[in-house]
Design goal:
mainly alpha; two-stranded antiparallel sheet
Amino acid sequence: MDLLAQVLVNGMLLGGLYAVMALGLALVWGVLNIVNLAHGAFIMLGGYVSWYLYTYVGIDPFLGLPLTAVVMFAVGYGVQRGLLNLIVRAPMFNTLLVTFGIEVVLTYLAQLAFSADFRTINPSYVGDSIALGTVVLPVSRLLAFGIAIVLTVSMWLFLLRTRLGRAIRATAQNLVAARLYGVEPRPLYAMTFGIGIALAGAAGGLYGTVSQINPYIGAALTAKSFAISIIGGLDNPLGVIVGGLFLGILESLTALYIGSTFSDVASFGVLVLVLIVRPNGLLGKAA
């Protein structure tokens, strides 16, 4: 039972990180109708930005997350205005090809800049832990989980409470009606994509504190974010939290009782089941 409790806690901590990883993808997909195949590459790039700030500038990886998010927002805004805006109303196959091309370019640029070696962000407290009875909570994972939940809830409040958030929701729900109320979609699309990539960059910074980063982690993170977005539902940021926690706990239990090599099999098996039984996600609304 002690082992099971530890595994469940580890799954929840991992699931919180998964949630913020998927949040940017779900936002861009829900508003722009773009399945961003480069999402994992942007997470990887955010991890390298945090690693650089910590290694060469001396900024704590958690305190440096706002700066990482700002840098990645500028990257995302520029990519959307300069490239994706040209094909935002094109068939989805075109956007898949373009975002796949961006993913390939970012991967090889990262390899040229940082080499293929694994990098980790190891502040002095990375090995510390907090014991709650028989359950041990690693400080780095606990901080990453807390920041991930704060980011996700803040995103939900932003979409509900702010004028820009309401404009983003209106554009996602009905573009024609949003235009009639004075919403200009093109700059809004760039802002939305920039916010999504800023969230991906912050997720990359958190990921670097609990795991290793290298230029080739992007494809796996894109697939994981895609699965979480589908399981949780695209129209509710809280659904992404549920999807991330569900997937984190499922993978941890699978690794305990079956084997770590079957974790991805369980994750994508559940994805297929959700697509069959509830295609709008666990918290998504029927179209």
